[in-house]
Amino acid sequence: MKTYLVTGAAGFIGANYLKYILAKHDDIRVVVLDALTYAGNLGTIAKDIDNERCFFVRGDITNQELVDRLFGEYKFDYIVNFAAESHVDRSIENPQLFLMTNILGTQNLLDAARRAWVTGKDEHGYPTWRKGVRFHQVSTDEVYGSLDENGYFTEETPLCPHSPYSASKTGADMIVMAYFDTYKMPVTITRCSNNYGPYHFPEKLIPLIIKNILEGKKLPVYGDGSNVRDWLYVDDHCKAIDMVVNKGTNGEVYNVGGHNEKTNLEIVKLTIATIHKLMSDQPEYRNVLKKKVKNEDGTLSIDWINDDLISFVKDRLGHDQRYAIDPTRISEALGWTPETMFEEGIVKTIEWYLNNQEWVNEVTSGDYQKYYDEMYLKR
Ligand code: NAD
Ligand code: DAU
Prior knowledge:
Layout: E1 2-7, H1 12-24, E2 28-34, H2 42-45, E3 54-58, H3 64-74, E4 78-81, H4 88-93, H5 95-117, E5 118-121, E6 127-129, E7 134-140, H6 164-183, E8 187-192, E9 195-196, H7 205-215, E10 219-222, E11 228-230, E12 232-233, H8 234-247, E13 252-256, E14 261-263, H9 264-281, E15 310-313, H10 328-334, H11 342-355, H12 357-363, H13 368-377
The site of nicotinamide-adenine-dinucleotide has 30 residues, from helix 1, helix 5 and strand 7.
């Protein structure tokens, strides 16, 4: 039986990953370590924490004493590190927090693992490691910087981050690889493109657009909307991480992406059209609308759900133009392929939000409105 430490599993991808591995593997035990920042929501994973197979600890990955104690108590085999400050716009406002969590937090976990997993020294003075252990770092394609209209990021693309967020994730990747080179620590890294799906916090493009449409608010598109992102359904990302954690090669980086490139304007228009179609086909979904416009017959109108909601706003500083992943390595080495096409995934995602408005209300009940006003009223 493997015991996992999964950090950041009260957030978007970590929560989906937790549900994925608990459903897939009967013979595992998982400890979730999460600080429950604004982006973490215990309600998302409350049903998964049974205190038999899955345990929850509220705490910070930078806390050395806490992480050491957890290692002593649970004897982890795997660490899967999702915990991070993850939003580019917030990193532009407050870079230091990103460096603290994303770089120093990762380094703290690496050191705790080193203290717990090293068994001795080989004849060259390199540490020897307990069998079957692994540190997996969940990284991002943003470490590669930005592409023009041609080409893809491969694992050999030089690292060239632009935002404080991506610079901090790059720092984390470099320190993970330094532990492999220096100590031969068993590590792997995945670098994934933009995820979408259930439990995505509505500060990110797709859930923010869905939320705004339902409220009849303007849909803020940065710049001219021509920036391209390579969208991947979150379950496909979880599957990739599961494969790498269990079958990956130490010291290897794996790019994860699904050849689903779309401009932001395309994403926004597709989201508008999909919500309109769902509410046309299944009128009961209109009850979710917070903006209530009545037709003459008293039913709720959806005529106003159209592209007129789009509002082009001031661009993000240092806005990367295009991300696109070449996933050849993970496909060839581990047989990973994405299963959800964007056209299917976006419908599943929107339906999830329409059916889970309580979750949206819960996660946006705190400082969200203040954040939204500060971030968007000045654009
Ligand atoms: P998220 O912001 O939704 O969740 C982050 C989680 O980490 C939250 O639960 C938060 O409470 C927790 N956390 C933050 N700081 C912490 C700390 N100091 N100690 C313990 N927990 C802390 O993020 P996400 O979108 O789920 O991303 C997860 C990981 O995947 C991140 O490392 C991110 O860089 C990476 N990633 C994200 C995407 C994407 O599209 N969202 C794509 C590629 C890679
Ligand atoms: O590529 C992987 C990365 O994807 C992850 O490492 C990050 O953690 C994750 O947040 C995401 O970063 P992006 O900056 O690409 O995602 P975001 O949803 O913030 O923005 C997607 C695109 O949409 C980007 O070009 C900016 C634009 N945008 C975003 C918001 C929030 C808008 O036009 N309007 C908006 O209101």
